[in-house]
Q: What sequence folds into this?
């Protein structure tokens, strides 16, 4: 993916074009939501400029990058007439499933990296089944 990562810390909102290569990308907008996809960048930019995200508002436990992400998602949901997600709902629906998947992938990668193996391509006939 190409783009910018918005993140919030004690120095305020950052827009980073690099440095997030090891992060997990979670799709929040379905491809058929064309109008929302077109507005997403503008909505996020406007949201990030709000007073709530000034550096002096940052608090490590209660007003942090997780809060920033969840508040933005809930703002978008509200604009679409949907109920806001609690921290627990957001974690259960979006964070944990992708974290589990990444953990399984990393475990498999570590196992493969420490063993001798080779990959045999399937015959064309087997691939078509």
A:
């Amino acid at each position: 993916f190409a783009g910018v990562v918005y993140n919030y810390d004690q120095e305020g909102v950052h827009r980073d074009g690099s440095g997030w290569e090891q992060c997990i990308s979670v799709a929040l907008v379905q491809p058929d939501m064309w109008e929302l996809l077109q507005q997403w960048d503008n909505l996020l930019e406007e949201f990030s400029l709000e007073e709530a995200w000034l550096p002096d508002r940052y608090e490590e436990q209660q007003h942090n990058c997780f809060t920033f992400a969840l508040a933005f998602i809930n703002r978008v949901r509200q604009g679409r007439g949907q109920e806001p997600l609690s921290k627990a709902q957001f974690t259960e629906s979006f964070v944990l499933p992708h974290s589990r998947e990444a953990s399984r992938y990393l475990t498999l990668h570590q196992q493969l990296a420490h063993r001798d193996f080779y990959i045999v391509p399937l015959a064309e006939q087997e691939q078509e089944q």
About this structure: The longest helix spans residues 87-113. DSSP finds four helices and two strands in the chain. The radius of gyration is 19 Å.
